[in-house]
Amino acid sequence: METIETGKRWSYEKAINVLTKCLGVCMSLFHLYTAYFGSLTGTRQTATHLLFVALIFLLPYEAKNPKYKWPVRISNLVLCAGFLASLLYNIIFNETLMKRMMQVDPVTPVQLVLGLILIVCLLILTKRTLGMAMPIIAVVFIVYAFTAKYMPGILYYKGISVSRFVEQMYLMFQGIFGEALNSSATFIVLFCVFGSFLQVSGGGQFFMDLAKSIVGRFRGGPGMMTVISCALMGTISGSAIANTAATGVFTIPFMRKSGYEKTFAGATVAVAATGAMIMPPVMGAGAFVMSEYLGISYGEVCMYAVVPAVLFYTAVFLQTYLEARKHNLQGIPKEEIEPIMSVIKRGGHLAIPLLVIIVMLIMGFSAMRAGFWGIVSVFVVSWFRKETRMTPKKLLNALHLGAKSSISVAVACACAGIIIGVLRFSGLGLKFTSAIMSISGGNVLIALMLTMVASIILGMGIPPTAVYVMQAALTAPALVQLGLLPIQAHMFIFYFSCMAGITPPVAICAYTAAPMCESNPAKVGYKAFALALSSFVVPYVFAFGSGVLLIGSFFDVTTSILSCILGIVMVAIAVVGWCGHKMNPILRGLLLAAALFLMFQGLASDLIGMAAGVVILLLHFTVFKKRGGQVSAA
N or C: which end of the chain has fewer CB within 10 A? Predict the structure, then answer.
């Protein structure tokens, strides 16, 4: 009897596994087809995308408690049936649904039932995929839509009927099938597939080896290697958590072996992995959504984002180096490092697809088309060497992994569509803008701080892209009304949506790194926050002065970037507490304050910060020499 049950369990799991892989391959092929020949009309593209995502995630989903194994499996099949019925109806009768939009036909009983089924199934799928935070927020907004007529003050809204609610969410472009899910169904999924192709062909290992050969031999080399590899790997994974897990396994042991304290090693990985979310060209899918909201090209978004991203990594890079100097750490032994030319010769061809994407974006091609040819180029260049060649088995595996890696973003975007839909038809978004304006009293700094707090709190339980989508509807209009350029407001929001991953108490990237470095998660989280301290200032820099975003005259842009770099150097010294020798805590605090003057645009503030920094550092060296110490070589 036990053998028979085991056999049944094995055959069921194997059948589901094969079916899921087939669906994953079909999903990736579908998106490659539409990327080349054009997206499907109406809501067909987004509905098909969501259907694939739901089936791929739900079919193999298992209960954590074996006691609930079969009830969960049955619920999976019920949910899959719900998604199939509701989404296939939308796909098959899409032309009729598009016509009814123009004719304002009433919602039929069948449409009402199917719409309610889709909303319930989507909330359950979101809970299983992303946890409780986002579905709870969505439910709160749904409840608000029906109870707003009883709300006081700015929360009041005349209310909405169930049929009208379903129409907005299920039958139109303003709900579940809105801009966010459309971005996932067109650009984002292609870059997820691109990342999986690059990973399967060996691109991830190439980037790790390249970083090791470039900086591994230097003092602090393992730390620098971590920063570089996380930045490069971020172009593949598209997720800060995945980036932390993928790079941490290799880089944390290197850092600890070379003498870095375990908490510092884990924090460095968490911070560097988070930085990949704001690093062009991929930016964790946020750049695609931002280009849609702002109505500008994807290449322009990357251009605006490049300097803040470089400043972020400059800060982390400096701190790993100063930490190594502080503890007199050495680099990786020369015999353990492969020569850089050997690494490039072995795997340098795998960097060509990244160049293909960047060049196509610069030339003005759409992100969808650039992603398609990027994927094709990975397959082509993989055949340059036998070790990286994508065999049919590797190809199918890459297609499946690409589909799987897009699930969390797709589900987050679909659920965010419910929230955004309520914000739009209730007018709550405009009221929220008015509330921020009122609370801040027109003060830009207060409004920015409120926005920062909201983004970080939401980001503690929701992926960055979903947080950005919600905040773009809620707070971005208020910031624009206060005088910020749209790109300044949206970049500010997106930046802090990503920073939640390394902000205590729920620093999810730090919690991911903690087991790998065998340290306390809370300690790793607070250390990561300290390492990213200068990065929390950078968004305020480009909010008050657009030079860092490459907007303005050549003089303004140049002085902004140079003063920011000097400020970041001073912040790094203050945070690590070392400059030639250990630094006095009081002088560290003063240097941190001086750095803030440098990081804000303006000649007067730059001169004050520079002068104060020079005085503080001279005082630091003078006091040490008076005590008979010797400054170690930098």
Answer: N
| Residues 230, 243 contacting (CB under 8 angstroms) | yes
Report DSSP state, residue 59: T
Tell me the helix, strand and coil percentages in the chain, rounded to 5: 80, 0, 20
**Interatomic CA distance for residues 187 and 169, integer angstroms:** 22
Tokens of 548: 């860092």
Of 369, 399, 429, the position where a domain reaches its end is 399
How far is the CA of 428 from the CAs of 133, 180, 415, 433, 458, in angstroms? 20, 19, 18, 8, 18
Q: CB neighbours (10 Å) of residue 62? A: 13
Q: 217 and 74 in one domain?
A: no
Q: Residue for token digits 């009927």?
A: 161
Contacts of 30-33 with C-beta under 8 Å, sequence gap 24+, read 31/185, 31/189, 31/190, 31/193, 32/190, 32/193, 32/372, 32/375
Can you tell me the distance from the alpha carbon of 476 to that of 495, in angstroms, rounded to the nearest whole number? 13
Non-local (6+) Cβ contacts of 124 within 8 A are 79, 135
**pLDDT digit string (tens) for 479-502?**
898 889 999 999 999 888 888 778
What is the end-to-end Cα distance of the chain in Å, rounded? Answer: 72
Average pLDDT score over residue span 578-595: 87
**Cβ-contact 446, 396 below 8 angstroms:** no
**151 located within any domain:** no
pLDDT at 380: 94
Distance CA 567, CA 606 (A): 9
Amino acid at 277: M
Question: What is the value of pTM for the model shown?
Answer: 0.75
Residue 192 is assigned to a structural domain of this protein: yes
Q: How far apart are CA 536 and CA 231, in angstroms?
A: 18
Distances (CA, A) of 614 to 314, 331, 437, 618, 620: 20, 30, 39, 6, 10
- Please check whether residue 368 is in contact with residue 423, taking contact to mean a CB–CB distance below 8 angstroms: no
